[in-house]
Hints:
- A three-stranded antiparallel β-sheet has the order 1-3-2.
- α2 packs across α5 (101-122).
- The two termini are 33 Å apart.
- It has a single domain (8-144), classed as Arc Repressor Mutant, subunit A.
- It is mainly α and 147 residues long.
- β2 (83-87) and β3 (95-99) form a beta hairpin.
- The protein has helices spanning 12-35, 39-51, 56-63, 67-79, 101-122, 127-144, and strands spanning 54-55, 83-87, 95-99.
- The protein has six helices and three strands.
Amino acid sequence: MTDKMLRLDAFIPYRLSFTAALLSDAIAQSYEDLFGIGIAEWRVIAWVAERGSITQQQICAMSRMDKVTVSRAAIALTGRGVLRRLPNAEDRRSHLLALTEEGERLHAAIAPKALEMESGVFSHFSAEEVEAFVGMLRRIDAVVLGG
């Protein structure tokens, strides 16, 4: 019999999930209160802003969000005039998503707030701790993805 027992509060995958959900919920509430959008919609806006134009499939791959969540967010944002769909010359079965002028304004309003919230949490840690933490997260990603 092993002397090490599984305790969820000390189990690193659980701790990562719990902390990520805690942080995400706080941020999501802020986005909803201030801008009337959810976290999935913000992530779609952020990826589109970062890439200029992008397919829903690419957003799914880079964000680890499922297809239904990304599709619903894209439909809602298109309906609100935040996104527009463009033809995809590389794959006629899909469309590229791009920000409208309204989408660019919304991104410009939310991005500084997102950075402010991040800073508020991580200001309690040294720059070296934050750098080490982000590096460790990237290394975990690589290990899990087989790299």
